[in-house]
Design brief:
The chain is of the alpha+beta class and 471 residues long. It is built from 18 helices and 17 strands. Helix 8 runs antiparallel to helix 9 and helix 11 packs antiparallel against helix 13.
Amino acid sequence: MAKINDITMTSGIGFVPTAAVRDFAGNFEVWAAQHKADPDDFVVQERQPGLQCTVSTESDFPNPEDLDSAKGPLVAVTLVKYRHTTPAAIEGLARLLNMPVKNITAAGLKDRTARSAQMVVLEGVDLEHVRRHCFPDENVLREHGFFIKDARRCTKKLGKGHLEGNHFQIKLIVAGKTREQLEEYLAPRLEFLMRDHKGKRVPRVPNFFGRQRLGRRQNLLGVGVDLIENGLEAGVKRFICEVVENNDHPKANELRRQLAAKWAEAERIAEEKGQSVAEQFYCFLDMKKLLETIGYRGKPVYKMANMFIEYKLVNKILSTKCIERAVRELKDDLSLSVGAFQGYWFNQLLGDVNDEGAKISVKSLEVDKDGEPVIPLYFPGDERSVAFYRQWCPQAVPDQLDRKTKEIFLSNFNGRPGPRRPAFIFVNDLSYDVRDEVVSFCFSLRSGAYATTFLSYLFQLDTDGLEVEEK
Protein backbone atom coordinates (compact mmCIF):
# COMPACT_ATOMS: atom_id res chain seq x y z
CA MET A 1 0.00 0.00 0.00
CA ALA A 2 1.24 3.48 -0.81
CA LYS A 3 1.93 5.50 2.33
CA ILE A 4 -0.76 8.07 3.05
CA ASN A 5 0.60 11.53 3.72
CA ASP A 6 0.88 12.30 7.46
CA ILE A 7 -0.75 15.69 6.85
CA THR A 8 -3.74 13.98 5.26
CA MET A 9 -4.02 11.54 8.18
CA THR A 10 -4.15 14.33 10.77
CA SER A 11 -5.77 17.23 8.92
CA GLY A 12 -7.88 15.76 6.12
CA ILE A 13 -6.15 17.82 3.43
CA GLY A 14 -6.07 15.60 0.35
CA PHE A 15 -8.91 13.32 1.50
CA VAL A 16 -10.97 14.72 -1.38
CA PRO A 17 -8.90 14.89 -4.62
CA THR A 18 -8.98 18.59 -5.46
CA ALA A 19 -8.03 18.33 -9.13
CA ALA A 20 -10.81 15.85 -9.89
CA VAL A 21 -13.42 17.98 -8.13
CA ARG A 22 -12.43 21.13 -9.94
CA ASP A 23 -12.18 19.35 -13.28
CA PHE A 24 -15.65 17.90 -12.96
CA ALA A 25 -17.03 21.29 -11.91
CA GLY A 26 -15.68 22.88 -15.09
CA ASN A 27 -12.51 24.44 -13.67
CA PHE A 28 -14.34 27.67 -13.00
CA GLU A 29 -12.89 30.16 -10.56
CA VAL A 30 -14.41 29.49 -7.13
CA TRP A 31 -15.36 32.03 -4.52
CA ALA A 32 -14.98 31.43 -0.80
CA ALA A 33 -18.19 30.91 1.16
CA GLN A 34 -18.89 30.45 4.84
CA HIS A 35 -21.35 27.79 5.95
CA LYS A 36 -22.63 26.82 9.39
CA ALA A 37 -22.22 30.35 10.70
CA ASP A 38 -25.23 29.43 12.82
CA PRO A 39 -26.92 26.01 13.30
CA ASP A 40 -30.10 27.41 11.75
CA ASP A 41 -28.09 28.02 8.56
CA PHE A 42 -27.62 24.25 8.12
CA VAL A 43 -30.88 22.32 8.44
CA VAL A 44 -30.94 18.54 7.84
CA GLN A 45 -34.24 16.67 7.74
CA GLU A 46 -34.23 12.91 7.33
CA ARG A 47 -36.52 11.15 4.88
CA GLN A 48 -37.80 7.73 5.90
CA PRO A 49 -40.12 5.58 3.74
CA GLY A 50 -43.44 7.39 3.80
CA LEU A 51 -42.21 10.08 6.21
CA GLN A 52 -40.35 13.36 5.91
CA CYS A 53 -39.02 14.25 9.35
CA THR A 54 -38.98 18.00 9.95
CA VAL A 55 -37.36 20.34 12.47
CA SER A 56 -40.70 22.06 13.03
CA THR A 57 -42.46 21.99 16.39
CA GLU A 58 -45.54 20.88 14.45
CA SER A 59 -46.36 17.21 13.91
CA ASP A 60 -45.08 15.52 10.76
CA PHE A 61 -48.34 13.55 10.57
CA PRO A 62 -51.17 15.64 9.05
CA ASN A 63 -53.66 13.02 10.21
CA PRO A 64 -53.23 12.44 13.99
CA GLU A 65 -55.04 9.09 13.65
CA ASP A 66 -51.97 7.74 11.83
CA LEU A 67 -50.01 7.98 15.09
CA ASP A 68 -52.57 5.97 17.02
CA SER A 69 -53.13 3.34 14.33
CA ALA A 70 -49.47 2.37 13.99
CA LYS A 71 -48.64 -1.14 15.25
CA GLY A 72 -45.59 -2.94 16.60
CA PRO A 73 -43.67 -3.72 19.81
CA LEU A 74 -41.27 -0.76 19.49
CA VAL A 75 -41.75 3.01 19.71
CA ALA A 76 -40.58 5.50 17.08
CA VAL A 77 -40.17 9.25 17.55
CA THR A 78 -38.76 12.15 15.59
CA LEU A 79 -35.69 13.51 17.36
CA VAL A 80 -35.02 17.20 16.66
CA LYS A 81 -31.63 18.41 17.85
CA TYR A 82 -29.62 21.63 17.91
CA ARG A 83 -25.85 21.99 18.51
CA HIS A 84 -25.70 18.32 19.50
CA THR A 85 -24.16 15.24 17.94
CA THR A 86 -26.58 12.39 17.39
CA PRO A 87 -24.93 10.23 20.12
CA ALA A 88 -25.09 13.13 22.61
CA ALA A 89 -28.77 13.76 21.85
CA ILE A 90 -29.55 10.04 22.16
CA GLU A 91 -27.73 9.90 25.49
CA GLY A 92 -29.82 12.85 26.68
CA LEU A 93 -32.99 11.13 25.47
CA ALA A 94 -32.04 7.95 27.33
CA ARG A 95 -31.65 9.94 30.55
CA LEU A 96 -34.96 11.71 29.95
CA LEU A 97 -36.81 8.41 29.49
CA ASN A 98 -34.74 6.52 32.09
CA MET A 99 -33.78 3.79 29.64
CA PRO A 100 -30.51 2.26 28.37
CA VAL A 101 -28.77 4.08 25.52
CA LYS A 102 -28.27 0.73 23.75
CA ASN A 103 -32.06 0.44 23.38
CA ILE A 104 -32.20 3.50 21.12
CA THR A 105 -31.32 3.08 17.44
CA ALA A 106 -30.94 5.56 14.60
CA ALA A 107 -30.26 5.29 10.87
CA GLY A 108 -27.29 7.63 10.84
CA LEU A 109 -25.45 10.58 12.30
CA LYS A 110 -26.55 14.16 11.73
CA ASP A 111 -24.21 17.13 11.86
CA ARG A 112 -23.47 18.67 15.25
CA THR A 113 -23.30 22.26 13.99
CA ALA A 114 -26.81 22.11 12.61
CA ARG A 115 -30.49 21.94 13.33
CA SER A 116 -31.61 18.45 12.34
CA ALA A 117 -34.48 15.99 12.50
CA GLN A 118 -34.25 12.21 12.35
CA MET A 119 -36.23 9.15 13.32
CA VAL A 120 -35.08 7.08 16.29
CA VAL A 121 -36.56 3.82 17.56
CA LEU A 122 -36.91 2.91 21.25
CA GLU A 123 -37.01 -0.64 22.59
CA GLY A 124 -38.46 -1.75 25.92
CA VAL A 125 -40.33 1.45 26.74
CA ASP A 126 -44.02 2.27 27.18
CA LEU A 127 -45.62 4.40 24.46
CA GLU A 128 -47.55 6.58 26.89
CA HIS A 129 -44.41 7.16 28.94
CA VAL A 130 -42.67 8.44 25.80
CA ARG A 131 -45.63 10.63 24.85
CA ARG A 132 -45.52 12.32 28.24
CA HIS A 133 -42.00 13.47 27.38
CA CYS A 134 -42.82 14.84 23.92
CA PHE A 135 -42.34 18.60 24.22
CA PRO A 136 -41.81 20.01 20.71
CA ASP A 137 -40.98 23.56 21.78
CA GLU A 138 -38.30 26.05 20.68
CA ASN A 139 -37.39 26.91 24.26
CA VAL A 140 -36.87 23.23 25.08
CA LEU A 141 -34.69 22.84 21.99
CA ARG A 142 -32.48 25.83 22.86
CA GLU A 143 -32.15 24.94 26.54
CA HIS A 144 -31.66 21.16 26.31
CA GLY A 145 -30.40 20.73 22.73
CA PHE A 146 -33.18 18.39 21.60
CA PHE A 147 -36.85 17.50 21.79
CA ILE A 148 -38.94 14.58 20.57
CA LYS A 149 -42.32 14.47 18.86
CA ASP A 150 -44.73 12.12 17.07
CA ALA A 151 -44.39 9.06 19.31
CA ARG A 152 -46.00 6.01 17.68
CA ARG A 153 -45.55 2.27 17.54
CA CYS A 154 -43.30 0.59 14.96
CA THR A 155 -42.04 -2.87 14.08
CA LYS A 156 -38.32 -2.58 13.35
CA LYS A 157 -35.17 -1.16 14.87
CA LEU A 158 -33.04 1.17 12.78
CA GLY A 159 -29.54 0.53 11.51
CA LYS A 160 -26.97 2.39 9.48
CA GLY A 161 -28.38 3.45 6.13
CA HIS A 162 -32.00 2.62 6.97
CA LEU A 163 -33.28 5.82 5.39
CA GLU A 164 -34.09 7.10 1.92
CA GLY A 165 -32.13 10.32 2.17
CA ASN A 166 -32.05 13.81 3.60
CA HIS A 167 -33.48 17.18 2.68
CA PHE A 168 -31.20 20.17 3.23
CA GLN A 169 -31.76 23.88 3.76
CA ILE A 170 -28.37 25.57 3.73
CA LYS A 171 -27.37 29.23 3.82
CA LEU A 172 -23.95 30.25 2.54
CA ILE A 173 -22.40 33.64 3.26
CA VAL A 174 -20.34 35.03 0.38
CA ALA A 175 -18.84 38.19 1.78
CA GLY A 176 -18.69 41.28 -0.39
CA LYS A 177 -20.76 39.92 -3.30
CA THR A 178 -24.00 41.50 -4.45
CA ARG A 179 -27.09 39.60 -5.51
CA GLU A 180 -26.40 40.39 -9.15
CA GLN A 181 -22.82 39.15 -8.89
CA LEU A 182 -23.91 35.92 -7.21
CA GLU A 183 -26.63 35.23 -9.80
CA GLU A 184 -24.12 35.77 -12.60
CA TYR A 185 -21.62 33.52 -10.81
CA LEU A 186 -24.01 30.62 -10.17
CA ALA A 187 -25.78 30.39 -13.52
CA PRO A 188 -22.92 28.95 -15.64
CA ARG A 189 -21.65 26.70 -12.87
CA LEU A 190 -25.00 25.07 -12.25
CA GLU A 191 -25.62 24.78 -15.97
CA PHE A 192 -22.30 22.96 -16.34
CA LEU A 193 -23.26 20.45 -13.64
CA MET A 194 -26.61 19.66 -15.28
CA ARG A 195 -26.70 16.26 -16.95
CA ASP A 196 -29.35 14.76 -19.20
CA HIS A 197 -29.70 11.28 -17.76
CA LYS A 198 -32.58 8.92 -18.43
CA GLY A 199 -34.93 11.79 -19.10
CA LYS A 200 -33.86 13.78 -16.03
CA ARG A 201 -32.02 17.06 -16.25
CA VAL A 202 -30.66 17.65 -12.77
CA PRO A 203 -27.18 18.07 -11.33
CA ARG A 204 -25.44 14.69 -11.36
CA VAL A 205 -22.11 14.79 -9.58
CA PRO A 206 -19.42 12.36 -8.38
CA ASN A 207 -20.31 10.99 -4.96
CA PHE A 208 -17.09 11.74 -3.08
CA PHE A 209 -17.02 11.16 0.64
CA GLY A 210 -16.84 14.51 2.42
CA ARG A 211 -14.43 15.39 5.17
CA GLN A 212 -17.18 14.89 7.75
CA ARG A 213 -16.06 11.28 7.40
CA LEU A 214 -12.92 12.27 9.28
CA GLY A 215 -14.58 13.44 12.48
CA ARG A 216 -14.23 16.68 14.38
CA ARG A 217 -10.43 16.36 14.73
CA GLN A 218 -10.12 15.37 11.05
CA ASN A 219 -7.84 12.53 12.16
CA LEU A 220 -10.02 9.43 11.78
CA LEU A 221 -8.09 8.42 8.67
CA GLY A 222 -4.95 8.13 10.80
CA VAL A 223 -6.87 6.13 13.40
CA GLY A 224 -8.14 3.84 10.65
CA VAL A 225 -4.64 3.31 9.25
CA ASP A 226 -3.40 2.34 12.71
CA LEU A 227 -6.30 -0.06 13.27
CA ILE A 228 -5.73 -1.74 9.93
CA GLU A 229 -1.93 -1.87 9.86
CA ASN A 230 -0.87 -1.83 13.51
CA GLY A 231 -3.79 -3.38 15.36
CA LEU A 232 -6.57 -2.57 17.78
CA GLU A 233 -4.43 -1.23 20.62
CA ALA A 234 -2.59 1.23 18.36
CA GLY A 235 -5.85 2.49 16.86
CA VAL A 236 -7.60 2.90 20.23
CA LYS A 237 -4.59 4.70 21.70
CA ARG A 238 -4.54 7.15 18.79
CA PHE A 239 -8.30 7.70 18.97
CA ILE A 240 -8.19 8.55 22.67
CA CYS A 241 -4.87 10.37 22.94
CA GLU A 242 -3.98 12.11 19.67
CA VAL A 243 -3.99 15.91 19.94
CA VAL A 244 -4.95 17.86 16.82
CA GLU A 245 -4.54 21.35 18.16
CA ASN A 246 -6.54 23.41 15.68
CA ASN A 247 -9.52 21.09 15.25
CA ASP A 248 -10.47 20.26 18.82
CA HIS A 249 -11.91 21.92 21.91
CA PRO A 250 -9.14 23.42 24.11
CA LYS A 251 -10.37 21.33 27.03
CA ALA A 252 -10.16 18.21 24.83
CA ASN A 253 -6.57 19.03 23.88
CA GLU A 254 -5.65 19.40 27.54
CA LEU A 255 -7.40 16.15 28.44
CA ARG A 256 -5.77 14.21 25.62
CA ARG A 257 -2.30 15.22 26.77
CA GLN A 258 -3.12 13.99 30.27
CA LEU A 259 -4.64 10.78 28.91
CA ALA A 260 -1.57 10.18 26.73
CA ALA A 261 0.65 10.44 29.81
CA LYS A 262 -1.51 7.88 31.63
CA TRP A 263 -1.47 5.58 28.59
CA ALA A 264 2.34 5.80 28.44
CA GLU A 265 2.45 4.90 32.13
CA ALA A 266 0.23 1.88 31.42
CA GLU A 267 2.60 0.80 28.63
CA ARG A 268 5.61 1.09 30.95
CA ILE A 269 4.01 -0.91 33.77
CA ALA A 270 2.70 -3.52 31.33
CA GLU A 271 6.20 -4.07 29.95
CA GLU A 272 7.65 -4.41 33.46
CA LYS A 273 4.99 -6.93 34.52
CA GLY A 274 4.76 -8.80 31.22
CA GLN A 275 1.07 -7.95 30.95
CA SER A 276 -1.14 -6.17 28.45
CA VAL A 277 -1.77 -2.43 28.55
CA ALA A 278 -5.49 -3.04 29.14
CA GLU A 279 -4.72 -4.93 32.37
CA GLN A 280 -3.30 -1.78 34.01
CA PHE A 281 -6.50 -1.11 35.91
CA TYR A 282 -5.37 1.87 37.95
CA CYS A 283 -4.02 3.75 34.95
CA PHE A 284 -7.39 3.47 33.21
CA LEU A 285 -9.16 4.33 36.45
CA ASP A 286 -7.12 7.54 36.50
CA MET A 287 -8.17 8.20 32.91
CA LYS A 288 -11.80 7.74 33.88
CA LYS A 289 -11.39 10.18 36.77
CA LEU A 290 -9.76 12.74 34.46
CA LEU A 291 -12.70 12.53 32.05
CA GLU A 292 -15.23 12.77 34.89
CA THR A 293 -13.68 15.88 36.44
CA ILE A 294 -16.47 18.36 37.08
CA GLY A 295 -16.20 21.52 35.01
CA TYR A 296 -18.41 24.39 33.91
CA ARG A 297 -22.00 24.30 35.22
CA GLY A 298 -21.36 21.03 37.00
CA LYS A 299 -20.81 19.04 33.79
CA PRO A 300 -18.11 16.37 33.52
CA VAL A 301 -15.34 17.62 31.28
CA TYR A 302 -15.76 14.74 28.80
CA LYS A 303 -19.17 16.19 27.95
CA MET A 304 -17.83 19.74 27.65
CA ALA A 305 -15.07 18.44 25.36
CA ASN A 306 -17.44 16.19 23.34
CA MET A 307 -15.41 13.09 24.22
CA PHE A 308 -18.32 10.68 24.68
CA ILE A 309 -16.78 7.82 22.71
CA GLU A 310 -13.43 8.19 24.45
CA TYR A 311 -15.23 7.98 27.80
CA LYS A 312 -17.08 4.84 26.73
CA LEU A 313 -13.85 3.23 25.54
CA VAL A 314 -12.02 3.91 28.80
CA ASN A 315 -14.93 2.47 30.78
CA LYS A 316 -15.10 -0.65 28.59
CA ILE A 317 -11.37 -1.25 28.94
CA LEU A 318 -11.74 -0.85 32.71
CA SER A 319 -14.58 -3.35 32.91
CA THR A 320 -13.17 -5.92 30.45
CA LYS A 321 -9.39 -5.46 30.90
CA CYS A 322 -9.21 -6.28 27.19
CA ILE A 323 -8.83 -3.95 24.21
CA GLU A 324 -10.38 -6.45 21.82
CA ARG A 325 -13.53 -6.94 23.91
CA ALA A 326 -13.89 -3.18 24.34
CA VAL A 327 -13.62 -2.66 20.58
CA ARG A 328 -16.09 -5.43 19.80
CA GLU A 329 -18.65 -3.95 22.21
CA LEU A 330 -18.15 -0.44 20.79
CA LYS A 331 -17.73 -1.53 17.17
CA ASP A 332 -20.20 1.01 15.79
CA ASP A 333 -18.40 3.91 17.47
CA LEU A 334 -15.02 2.95 16.00
CA SER A 335 -16.24 1.79 12.59
CA LEU A 336 -16.10 5.41 11.39
CA SER A 337 -12.31 5.24 11.59
CA VAL A 338 -12.13 2.17 9.36
CA GLY A 339 -14.74 3.89 7.18
CA ALA A 340 -12.40 6.87 6.82
CA PHE A 341 -9.73 4.53 5.42
CA GLN A 342 -12.24 3.05 2.98
CA GLY A 343 -13.50 6.52 2.09
CA TYR A 344 -10.03 7.85 1.32
CA TRP A 345 -9.29 5.14 -1.24
CA PHE A 346 -12.80 5.31 -2.68
CA ASN A 347 -12.24 9.04 -3.25
CA GLN A 348 -8.85 8.53 -4.89
CA LEU A 349 -10.27 5.85 -7.19
CA LEU A 350 -13.34 7.92 -8.06
CA GLY A 351 -11.03 10.82 -8.86
CA ASP A 352 -9.37 8.64 -11.50
CA VAL A 353 -12.76 7.80 -13.00
CA ASN A 354 -13.46 11.49 -13.47
CA ASP A 355 -10.04 12.72 -14.56
CA GLU A 356 -9.65 13.56 -18.24
CA GLY A 357 -8.09 10.57 -19.94
CA ALA A 358 -8.76 8.50 -16.83
CA LYS A 359 -7.43 4.98 -16.61
CA ILE A 360 -10.85 3.83 -15.35
CA SER A 361 -13.91 4.21 -17.54
CA VAL A 362 -17.41 4.26 -16.12
CA LYS A 363 -18.07 1.10 -18.12
CA SER A 364 -15.51 -0.72 -15.96
CA LEU A 365 -17.63 -0.23 -12.84
CA GLU A 366 -20.29 -2.52 -11.40
CA VAL A 367 -23.89 -1.37 -11.66
CA ASP A 368 -26.72 -1.54 -9.13
CA LYS A 369 -30.27 -2.77 -9.68
CA ASP A 370 -31.15 0.53 -11.34
CA GLY A 371 -28.23 0.31 -13.75
CA GLU A 372 -26.28 3.04 -11.97
CA PRO A 373 -22.48 2.64 -11.62
CA VAL A 374 -21.18 1.73 -8.15
CA ILE A 375 -17.73 1.32 -6.64
CA PRO A 376 -17.00 -1.21 -3.86
CA LEU A 377 -15.38 -0.01 -0.67
CA TYR A 378 -12.15 -1.82 0.17
CA PHE A 379 -13.40 -4.82 2.13
CA PRO A 380 -11.02 -7.78 2.60
CA GLY A 381 -13.93 -10.09 3.44
CA ASP A 382 -15.19 -9.63 -0.14
CA GLU A 383 -12.95 -11.18 -2.81
CA ARG A 384 -14.54 -9.10 -5.59
CA SER A 385 -13.76 -5.92 -3.68
CA VAL A 386 -10.13 -6.88 -3.16
CA ALA A 387 -9.75 -7.94 -6.81
CA PHE A 388 -11.22 -4.63 -7.95
CA TYR A 389 -8.72 -2.62 -5.90
CA ARG A 390 -5.80 -4.81 -6.93
CA GLN A 391 -6.67 -4.08 -10.55
CA TRP A 392 -7.55 -0.37 -10.41
CA CYS A 393 -6.03 0.99 -7.18
CA PRO A 394 -3.39 -1.46 -5.89
CA GLN A 395 -1.91 1.19 -3.59
CA ALA A 396 -5.05 0.85 -1.45
CA VAL A 397 -4.28 -2.76 -0.49
CA PRO A 398 -2.35 -2.76 2.84
CA ASP A 399 1.01 -4.48 3.02
CA GLN A 400 -0.12 -5.84 6.38
CA LEU A 401 -3.67 -6.22 7.64
CA ASP A 402 -4.40 -6.77 11.31
CA ARG A 403 -6.32 -10.02 11.70
CA LYS A 404 -8.65 -8.78 14.43
CA THR A 405 -9.46 -5.55 12.62
CA LYS A 406 -10.35 -7.53 9.51
CA GLU A 407 -12.52 -9.90 11.55
CA ILE A 408 -14.38 -7.16 13.44
CA PHE A 409 -14.76 -4.45 10.80
CA LEU A 410 -14.02 -5.84 7.36
CA SER A 411 -15.82 -9.19 7.14
CA ASN A 412 -19.47 -10.18 6.93
CA PHE A 413 -20.14 -13.29 8.98
CA ASN A 414 -23.16 -14.21 6.83
CA GLY A 415 -21.05 -14.27 3.68
CA ARG A 416 -22.67 -11.23 2.09
CA PRO A 417 -20.52 -9.04 -0.17
CA GLY A 418 -19.00 -5.84 1.12
CA PRO A 419 -20.57 -2.40 0.72
CA ARG A 420 -20.93 -0.61 -2.62
CA ARG A 421 -21.33 3.14 -3.02
CA PRO A 422 -22.90 4.96 -5.98
CA ALA A 423 -20.25 6.63 -8.11
CA PHE A 424 -22.62 9.50 -8.93
CA ILE A 425 -25.58 11.11 -7.22
CA PHE A 426 -28.50 13.22 -8.37
CA VAL A 427 -29.16 16.49 -6.59
CA ASN A 428 -32.95 16.49 -6.46
CA ASP A 429 -35.51 19.21 -5.73
CA LEU A 430 -32.84 21.88 -6.16
CA SER A 431 -33.81 25.51 -5.66
CA TYR A 432 -31.93 28.53 -4.44
CA ASP A 433 -32.50 32.11 -3.41
CA VAL A 434 -29.90 34.84 -3.82
CA ARG A 435 -29.52 38.05 -1.85
CA ASP A 436 -26.62 40.37 -1.19
CA GLU A 437 -23.81 38.24 0.32
CA VAL A 438 -26.13 35.26 0.86
CA VAL A 439 -27.16 32.19 -1.16
CA SER A 440 -29.78 29.86 0.35
CA PHE A 441 -30.05 26.36 -1.15
CA CYS A 442 -32.74 23.69 -0.77
CA PHE A 443 -32.16 20.20 -2.17
CA SER A 444 -32.46 16.49 -1.44
CA LEU A 445 -29.83 13.76 -1.56
CA ARG A 446 -30.05 10.00 -1.26
CA SER A 447 -28.68 8.35 1.88
CA GLY A 448 -24.91 8.41 2.26
CA ALA A 449 -24.35 11.52 0.13
CA TYR A 450 -22.88 14.72 1.54
CA ALA A 451 -24.45 18.13 1.07
CA THR A 452 -21.10 19.85 1.44
CA THR A 453 -19.63 17.68 -1.33
CA PHE A 454 -22.21 19.06 -3.77
CA LEU A 455 -21.74 22.64 -2.55
CA SER A 456 -17.96 22.28 -2.95
CA TYR A 457 -18.48 22.03 -6.71
CA LEU A 458 -19.82 25.59 -6.55
CA PHE A 459 -17.85 27.30 -3.79
CA GLN A 460 -14.74 26.91 -1.69
CA LEU A 461 -16.35 26.23 1.67
CA ASP A 462 -14.59 27.61 4.71
CA THR A 463 -13.93 24.12 6.12
CA ASP A 464 -13.47 21.91 3.09
CA GLY A 465 -9.85 22.75 2.28
CA LEU A 466 -10.34 21.89 -1.38
CA GLU A 467 -8.11 24.68 -2.58
CA VAL A 468 -5.15 23.79 -0.38
CA GLU A 469 -2.30 22.48 -2.47
CA GLU A 470 -1.79 18.75 -2.01
CA LYS A 471 1.82 17.71 -1.48
